[in-house]
Amino acid sequence: MKRFFLCLGVLGLLWSCGSDDPPPAPEGANLIFPDQNSECTTGVNVSETLSQVTFRWQASIHTDSYTLNVVNLETNVPQTISTAATSASLSIAKGTPYSWSVNSVNSQSDQTATSETWLFYNSGFQTTYAPFPAQLVNPVSGSTVQKSIANEVVLKWMGADVENDITSFEVFFSDENPPTTSIGTTNPDTMELNVGVTSNTVYFWKVITTDQEGNTSDSGLFEFKVF
């Protein structure tokens, strides 16, 4: 009898240990369409200003559902939709730059995974497109950073264009909001710039991208504080 209860106790211990294993976290989905840095021309006409675009991605493991995130890069207004499928349709503005990404969700896990973020233009009536607004990478907006021994911080960004004809990036940087001081212009292959900073100061910056047609785009404003 003692041996019987001992076996039950061991089984119960094994079961309780197994139940503590965390559920597997989902993995990020691979995006398929609209393509990165492309013009999307497959939208279904909804109105003079809107078309319906179907977004597609590959299934990711340990995933029950997905959240599609689409952001208008001119207004920074997001649109989201949740689905168990690997595609979803949204009505979005014509002739407008967007970013999109997908979050993978496992209902048994408190962790989520996020795909890469891709940029595209939803086709409109124009024959030439402005560059995508530069994506400011570093310093992260709202962060506090350490300056270098030379009292400098490196500003980094990413730029892209449907027609691949960017000619320059102009950087505006100041401790005033908004920054009106242009501190330099870089060529299309240079997407970082060293700037002089002072401790205990908040700085604001943005990047204006220009292409061969003279079209421009504004990155929007980022801010950071220096230790």
TrEMBL record:
Question: Which top-rank group of organisms is this from?
Answer: Bacteria
Q: Which InterPro entries match?
A: Ig-like_fold
Q: What is this protein called?
A: Fibronectin type-III domain-containing protein
